[in-house]
Write a structure and sequence with these properties.
This protein is of the alpha/beta class and about 260 residues long. It contains 10 helices and 8 strands. It has helices spanning about 15-25, 40-55, 75-85, 100-105, 110-130, 140-150, 165-175, 190-195, 225-235, 240-255; strands at about 5-10, 30-35, 60, 90-95, 130-135, 155-160, 175-180, 200-205. It is globular, with a radius of gyration of 17 Å.
Length: about 260
């Protein structure tokens, strides 16, 4: 059986030009059919669209990463305008969410303004019937679920999810999906999340160029690393590896409506 993959979350514009060329050149030999490329800010959003215009395997998502200072109003409106002008080209809205890690370093940081920004992206996802890609971990995931539920959002992707079982159960009960990175091969907490998540609501990603440890230590992050993720998922779930490939691929295709 064909063992094909889709990287459900990657920051393609953050690679060095030479690294990106090598990454794309090696996709076919790595059996990777597509990349869902998420954005960090306005420049990143425009770059994703530019890259997608050069390679149809690149599936762009537009958003503003929450682990940074709030966008100026002019930048936020420009990103929202990019979404309006390119909604027919977009695979998703993202990466958006709440600044969990920033708040650990800056305890006095107010979360309400970030919630207001996130809500604007949720409205765009709802209006254009696009999936939304979320950076929402630990207790922030519950706050985000509140927002998603208030807008009756049906397609939400909690990328590289980390959190308690109770929050994970809520995410899954809503029909949302989660994804895991190559750290599933060496982190017990991530393996536990895989064990608790139905295969029909699980995807794989790299979050590249974020680097990984274990078998991947010192290597430039490449979507080919997801093959070891699949192997680990099959072992955790005691399933035939071809079945895991097939179901995760189908979940990703259907969720992101990738042709």
């Amino acid at each position: 059986m064909s063992r094909r993959l889709i990287d459900a979350h990657i920051h393609l514009d953050m690679y060095e030009d030479g690294e990106r060329i090598v990454l794309l050149d090696k996709l076919e030999e790595s059996s990777v059919d597509a990349l869902v490329t998420v954005s960090n800010n306005l420049a990143s959003s425009n770059r994703q669209l530019e890259l997608a215009g050069l390679d149809n395997r690149i599936k762009p998502a537009i958003g503003y990463h929450p682990e940074q200072a709030l966008p100026a109003e002019e930048e936020l409106q420009a990103i929202l305008n990019v979404i309006d002008q390119n909604s027919h080209r977009l695979t998703a809205i993202g990466e958006v969410g709440l600044p969990y890690y920033t708040r650990q370093e800056q305890p006095d940081l107010e979360v309400e303004p970030y919630i207001e920004v996130l809500e604007q992206f949720i409205r765009k996802a709802k209006g254009y019937e696009l999936p939304i890609v979320l950076h929402a971990v630990y207790e922030d995931a519950a706050l985000v679920c509140d927002l998603l539920e208030s807008y009756s959002i049906e397609k939400a992707h909690f990328h590289w999810f980390k959190g308690e079982d109770t929050i994970l159960k809520r995410i899954l009960a809503n029909g949302y999906v989660v994804s895991v990175t190559p750290d599933v091969t060496y982190k017990v907490k991530v393996q536990h999340i895989v064990d608790q998540t139905p295969l029909s609501q699980l995807m794989v990603e790299t979050d590249g160029p974020w680097p990984f440890e274990g078998h991947f230590s010192g290597k430039v992050t490449h979507p080919s690393m997801m093959h070891k993720s699949i192997q680990t998922i099959a072992e955790i779930k005691h399933l035939n590896i071809d079945e895991v490939y097939r179901k995760i691929y189908a979940t990703t295709i259907n969720f992101y409506r990738i042709e």
